[in-house]
Design a protein that fits this description.
By secondary structure, the chain is α/β, with parallel strands linked by helices. It has twelve helices and eleven strands. The chain has a single domain, classed as Aldolase class I (TIM Barrel, Alpha-Beta Barrel), CATH 3.20.20.70. Helix content is 50%, strand content 17%.
């Protein structure tokens, strides 16, 4: 059995730390982040996007995640990230995910509210929690993109949570998806976050908050990557957001960068090696190190 996402986030909300949500696409990424959770004795959320499901298959990703839970003693929840296709959301509910997200941020407010309420009721009937999104997070990741940030309005967030019954809410406070997030250093709208927390009193979620570690970017570029202009959210901003109500933080870009850097390095140093085990093992190991640092930053070490 997977861990209960709502219980994990409620505990984090009360304890003023954040649960690490890691997007997975294959076995090596999953093994890497799960090992980090075991090393740090931390609960985590494994998340599949619609793009990951299209790539690897829902059942494969679910079984890999279930095996991870069976082989470890840390709580692992399974979550659908940025669900927009209603049938995919229903499939994940049927498959026994811990939670699903309906991302209606591309819709007008009334339509987003209406569909979120319907899907929340469906999820609750199946004892699954639902994440909603209000406001728009900039940038692009997987199958989701937006040209600009539309900040979440606190009073509207209050009404939205009350009328939909959603269990946790993804908010837009200045973060952006992908590695090419900002032109200058990110400064999150903590004043907006404080007011949303005061009015909603539900766990809040931060998307688009990857750190884009400089050492990983440098490593990738050393071995051939072109990553000019990438920039992430500084750890000080992340910690401030957690202090003021963020209970779940999504990480995808940092894992991709680590995977890429390690594969590039191995192939450059070992041009005659074509064994996928030799190529992918360093990627898995570097993902573990990156995930450990995220868990430490979020304050969820030793919370399993």
């Amino acid at each position: 059995m997977f861990a209960n996402t709502k219980k994990l986030l409620t505990k984090a909300y009360e304890g003023k730390y954040a649960i690490a949500h890691f997007n997975i696409n294959n076995m090596e990424i999953t093994q890497g982040v799960v090992q980090a959770a075991v090393n740090k004795k931390a609960p985590i959320i494994l998340a599949t996007s619609e793009g990951a499901i299209k790539y690897a298959g829902l059942n494969y990703l679910r079984q890999i995640s279930q095996t991870s839970q069976n082989l470890t003693n840390v709580p692992i929840a399974l979550h659908l990230d940025h669900g927009r296709d209603i049938q995919t959301i229903k499939n994940c509910i049927k498959a026994g995910f811990s939670s699903v997200m309906f991302d209606g941020s591309n819709l007008d407010y009334k339509t987003n509210l209406k569909i979120t309420r319907q899907l929340t009721n469906l999820a609750h009937k199946n004892e699954i929690s639902l994440e909603a999104e209000l406001g728009t997070i900039g940038g692009a990741e997987d199958l989701v993109s937006a040209k600009k940030i539309i900040y979440t309005q606190p009073e509207q967030a209050k009404e939205f949570v009350e009328k939909t019954g959603c269990d946790f809410l993804a908010v837009a406070i200045g973060t952006s998806h992908g590695a090419y997030k900002f032109k200058t250093k990110a400064k999150l709208k903590i004043d907006i976050l404080k007011e949303i927390k005061r009015l909603t009193k539900v766990p809040l979620v931060l998307h688009g908050a990857s750190g884009v570690p400089k050492e990983i970017v440098n490593m990738a570029q050393k071995y051939g990557a072109n990553l000019k202009g990438v920039m992430g959210v500084h750890n000080s901003q992340i910690k401030l957001a957690i202090k003021n109500g963020i209970s779940k933080i999504n990480t995808d870009t940092d894992l991709r960068l680590a995977f890429d850097a390690a594969v590039r390095q191995h192939l450059k140093k070992n041009p005659k090696d074509f064994d996928p085990r030799h190529i992918l093992a360093p990627a898995r190991n570097l993902i573990t190190k990156v995930a450990e640092k995220r868990i430490e930053t979020f304050g969820s070490s030793n919370k399993a």
